[in-house]
C-alpha cells in the first residue's frame, strides 16, 4: 500500500508521518502542495505544522493549494484521508469535515501527552482499536479547540462521527471534549493529537512499563492498511 504525505510550506511533521507509515508496513510517498497529481497513492495524510505560517486562519491557505483539489476529489470518491492537527484544520477549511478549530481556550500553545478514548472504531483509520479503547498520544497545538453549531454537534454525536474524545482534562476547550471527527462515510478523519509521535518504543509517551515506550498511535496507520487488505 502506498500512502501519500503532503508537504506544505511550514509543515513540521511530514517526515514523522512518513516514518509512521513505514513502521506500519506501507510505503510512504512524499507529495508537494503545488502538484496536481497524487501519483497513484492509496491513501493520504495531511500532516501537522504551521502551513503558510497560519496566516488568515490555520489551514485556510493550505486548503486552497493545488494538490488539495486532488485530495478533495479523491476523498469524495472514497480514498482514506487523515488530517493531523494542522491537517485537521485543512480538512474543515476544505469542507471535507464539519466543524472548525479555534484558539485554545487558555490562549496558549499546549504540548503534552494526552489521554484519549476511541469513540468510533469503524472508520478507515480507527478500525484497529477496540471499542472505547483508551490511548495516550502527544498533543501540541495553539488552535485546537473544536467548535460546531448546535445542530452540527448534535448530528456528529448522533451519527457516531466523533472518533476520539479527551480524557482527564479538556486541554483546549473543545466542545464535548472532542479530539477528532470523521465524515459520514468514515474514510476522512481529522485528529488534533499526533499519532505519528507515538509509533516507536523510546520515542513515544511514558507508560507504566517504561519511559517513552508508548506506541498507541501506530494503530491509526495499521488500521488503514488492514482495511485496504480486507477490501482488496
Provide a descriptive summary of the structure in words.
The structure is a single chain. With 232 residues, this protein is of the alpha/beta class. It has a single domain (2-231), classed as 3-Layer(aba) Sandwich (Rossmann fold). Helices cover 23% and strands 25% of the residues. It contains five helices and eleven strands, in the order E-H-E-E-H-E-H-E-E-E-E-H-E-E-E-H. The protein has helices at residues 14-24, 66-76, 86-93, 150-158, 218-231, and strands at residues 2-7, 27-32, 43-46, 81-84, 100-102, 110-118, 134-141, 145-147, 162-166, 178-182, 188-191. Strand 10 (178-182) and strand 11 form a beta hairpin. The model has no long low-confidence stretch (mean pLDDT 96). Its EC number is 6.3.5.3, 3.5.1.2. One of its GO terms (cellular component) is cytoplasm. Keywords: ATP-binding, Cytoplasm, Glutamine amidotransferase, Hydrolase, Ligase, Nucleotide-binding, Purine biosynthesis. This is Phosphoribosylformylglycinamidine synthase subunit PurQ. It is found in: Cytoplasm.
Amino acid at each position: 500500500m502506498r500512502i501519500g504525505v503532503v508537504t506544505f510550506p511550514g509543515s513540521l511533521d511530514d517526515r514523522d508521518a512518513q516514518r509512521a507509515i513505514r513502521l506500519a508496513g506501507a510505503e510512504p510517498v512524499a507529495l508537494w502542495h503545488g502538484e496536481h497529481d497524487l501519483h497513484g497513492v492509496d491513501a493520504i495524510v495531511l500532516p501537522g505544522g504551521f502551513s503558510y505560517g497560519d496566516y488568515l486562519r490555520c489551514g485556510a491557505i493550505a486548503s486552497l493549494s493545488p494538490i488539495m483539489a486532488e485530495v478533495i476529489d479523491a476523498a469524495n470518491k472514497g480514498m482514506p484521508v487523515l488530517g493531523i492537527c494542522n491537517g485537521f484544520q485543512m480538512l474543515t477549511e476544505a469542507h471535507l469535515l464539519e466543524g472548525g478549530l479555534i484558539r485554545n481556550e487558555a490562549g496558549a500553545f499546549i504540548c503534552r501527552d494526552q489521554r484519549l478514548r476511541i469513540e468510533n472504531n469503524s472508520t478507515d483509520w480507527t478500525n484497529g482499536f477496540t471499542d472505547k479503547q483508551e490511548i495516550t498520544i502527544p498533543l501540541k497545538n495553539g488552535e485546537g479547540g473544536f467548535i460546531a453549531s448546535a445542530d452540527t454537534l448534535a448530528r456528529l454525536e448522533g451519527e457516531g462521527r466523533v472518533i476520539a474524545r479527551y480524557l482527564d482534562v479538556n486541554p483546549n476547550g473543545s466542545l464535548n471534549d472532542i479530539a477528532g471527527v470523521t465524515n459520514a462515510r468514515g474514510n476522512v478523519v481529522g485528529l488534533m493529537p499526533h499519532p505519528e509521535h507515538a509509533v516507536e518504543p523510546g520515542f513515544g509517551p511514558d507508560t507504566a512499563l517504561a519511559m517513552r515506550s508508548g506506541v498507541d498511535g501506530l494503530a491509526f496507520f495499521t488500521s488503514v492498511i488492514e482495511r485496504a487488505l480486507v477490501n482488496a
